[in-house]
Specification:
globular; alpha/beta; single chain; eight-stranded parallel beta barrel; 31 strands; 34% helix; five-stranded parallel beta sheet; 653 residues
Length: 653
């Protein structure tokens, strides 16, 4: 076996973990879709978690299970473990995981001072304080004892529902880490102050209470921040001291980092694509050195099995946990075990899943359109009619459409006008933080090329005339879009380039670069070029940068902009480009010359509407997808391609 340490079973608290790869907590209120009384779409959610168990995870954790409806809720429509109304839903979830041989864990959580922000109910934390002008009251002894009891009751309830482990959320700024933080917890009693023993007491007593109610053969996992990674938080020394207090009470210490409530470290807790693989493993390694009996889990930005194997083999941790990697590919462990590493869909860490969840109440993956749609797949039936399908365009949407249609049994012809599949995204293959996107495009290209049901024609543009010659039943137009060239005086100068050209050949850019356009294309290009040592200035007409609907990825780009010293100019309009730079009109209607050697425009994409319309009458059935409809994102392209592919021929039409 290629990764023997990753796939070595281990027994913890009388429970067998079949390997060392954990599916860490996912499933916030919006992710799983629930009513105020608990899970609403219980079967849909069961399938979501079940896929990870089927895929070979050692354990699967249902995230954000709240223990106190009155005082511990972070928002609305959360899932609670103090309500018997949800017993059937939790039993369904637990059974979906355990019947496939994985350990089912419920992440039990209380938000402390951050609770009830919008509810009007008082919030309680370690001390009296304010949270953005909102009063927070110090918990008295009775309140603390009640919190401990509620954690224990929640774990017992989860066990009764069929869960075989509890994961205490003691990290990321929630109630336990509030008590651990010496800068925040300035209490004078046994629950706080300078003593780490006092500040750890809440967590220790919670572990003790769970042990009393759930017994010895029920693993207690506690997630901590090894370091909170910001000035007002605690560092690794406090994190290690906290872990030493937990040793002997918790069976597993799950070491994360950062805090949800601090924008500057949010993308450390959920590492952005700009950070190194396994960037938070340094904290787990320090905890592992310090504890004697507890197993240690490392989590954060893992997709490379070689790194995960090395961490386990070297003793830096006992388990490697992954969240977004299982969202991108729930079959990750089984593919590795079977020697199918090249088939793994590696997470890009784009945070589309998390952003879409918060924005629209549903978790989807940008590069795996099956994620979030698993329940619907159960009811898929073979197409009533097998069809001959012509796909015009071999970009990210065209490739997915071809693969989905072929998987459904159709005959597929895929035509790409260039000599390579992948579309416009291929220009980013030199960008270090887009390496997993490039890997994904290569994987899709290989899958298309090796599929016997797909006939591939490169260097072939689909025109109305050529389309007729294929004799297809269905035509799918996935032509993409073209870069908009702004109408600015001097735009045709020798020092002016479209973003795609500079992505492909960054050596064409001088030492000082102005980027016209503050969308993701321009911002990510600026980060790429700044990483090569160039001085970057961004000019944006609007009053804010455009995150493309991915506000959490924007937190990561904001950190990089600050770190790399990229200059951002909002409410600024480019008037003329010269060999010296760009003359602009500022918010105050004043003219200002921004000096630069190179000017790059990234002001948007133009859908190829005319080209698409010309193809509409060729075949009996016609579909359009991706940027040729309207410029969108990878998620929209793969989702549309997948859904169109599943729908063709389904109803016998």
């Amino acid at each position: 076996m290629k990764y023997p340490h990753l796939f070595e079973p281990v027994v913890v608290a009388g429970t067998l973990f079949r390997n060392r790869i954990m599916a860490s907590p996912t499933g916030h209120r919006d992710t799983v879709g629930c009513t105020e009384h608990g899970f609403y779409h219980k079967d849909e959610n069961a399938v979501y978690y079940e896929r990870m168990a089927i895929g070979g995870a050692a354990s699967v954790t249902v995230g954000s299970c709240y223990i106190d409806r009155q005082y511990g809720d972070f928002g609305t429509f959360h899932v609670f473990l103090d309500d018997w109304f949800s017993v059937n839903c939790y039993n369904t979830l637990a059974g979906a995981v355990t019947r496939h041989g994985a350990v089912a864990s419920a992440e039990i959580i209380h938000c402390g001072l951050y609770s009830n922000r919008a509810a009007g109910t008082p919030s309680y934390g370690p001390v009296d304080m304010e949270d953005n002008g909102r009063p927070v009251y110090a918990m008295d002894e009775a309140f603390i004892e009640n919190v401990i009891e509620k954690f224990a009751d929640a774990a017992a309830f989860a066990k009764r529902c069929g869960f075989t482990m509890a994961t205490i959320h003691g990290a990321h700024g929630w109630i336990i880490s509030q008590f651990v933080n010496p800068k925040l917890n300035t209490r004078k009693d046994k629950w706080g102050g300078p003593s780490v023993e006092n500040r750890s007491r809440l967590a220790v007593e919670i572990c003790k209470a769970i042990r009393r109610k759930c017994g010895n053969n029920f693993p207690i996992d506690i997630r901590i921040s090894g370091s909170e990674c910001y000035d007002g938080g605690y560092g690794i020394d406090e994190g290690v001291a906290f872990a030493k207090q937990l040793d002997g009470y918790a069976d597993i210490i799950h070491v994360s980092a950062g805090s949800h409530e601090r924008d500057e470290v949010f993308t450390i807790t959920h590492p952005s694509m700009f950070l190194d693989e396994g960037c938070n493993s340094i904290y787990a390694a320090e905890v592992k050195k310090a504890v004697k009996t507890a197993k240690v889990v490392t989590v954060g930005a893992f997709s490379d099995p070689k790194l995960a194997e090395e961490i386990i083999a070297s003793g830096k941790a006992d388990f490697v946990a992954m969240a977004r990697q299982f969202i991108a590919d729930p079959d990750y462990p089984n593919k590795l075990r079977a020697g199918r590493e090249d088939d793994v869909i590696k997470c890009m860490r784009c945070l589309t899943c998390f952003s879409h969840t918060q924005n629209f109440g549903k978790l989807y993956c940008a590069i795996n359109p099956k994620t979030g749609r698993g329940y619907g797949e159960i009811f898929d039936v073979p197409p009533a009619r097998k069809k001959k399908i012509l796909i015009a365009g071999g970009g990210i949407g065209g490739m997915q459409a071809a693969l989905t249609c072929a998987e459904r049994g159709h005959e597929v012809i895929l035509c790409e006008r260039s000599g390579r599949l992948g579309g416009g995204l291929r220009c980013e293959e030199k960008v270090p933080f887009k390496k997993n996107l490039d890997r994904y495009l290569n994987k899709q290209e290989s899958a298309v090329s090796n599929c016997k049901s797909i006939t591939l024609h490169l260097n072939t543009e689909v025109t109305p005339e050529s389309a007729k010659s294929f004799g297809a039943d269905v035509l799918i137009a996935a032509l993409g879009a073209a870069a908009i060239k702004p109408k600015i005086k001097g735009i045709d100068g020798a020092n002016v380039f479209p973003a795609e050209e500079i992505y492909t050949a960054p050596e064409k850019a001088g030492g000082r670069v102005i980027i016209l356009g503050g969308g993701l294309v321009g911002i990510e290009l600026g980060i790429f070029l700044a990483g090569l040592g160039k001085k970057i200035t961004v000019i944006e007409m609007l009053d804010k940068l455009n995150d493309g609907g991915n506000h959490l990825h924007a937190k990561g780009t904001a950190v990089e902009i600050k770190k790399l010293g990229i200059e951002i100019n909002l409410n600024t309009k480019a008037v003329e480009i010269t060999d010296k730079g760009v003359l602009c009109e500022t918010e105050k209607k004043e003219q200002k010359l921004f000096e630069a050697d190179t000017v790059v425009y990234a002001v948007g994409q133009r859908p190829l509407h005319e080209e698409v319309s010309a193809l509409s009458g060729i075949c009996p059935e016609f579909h359009i997808l991706g940027d040729c409809v309207a410029p969108r994102n990878i998620l929209a392209a793969t989702a549309a391609a997948y859904d169109i592919g599943r729908a063709i021929g389904r109803f016998g039409v």
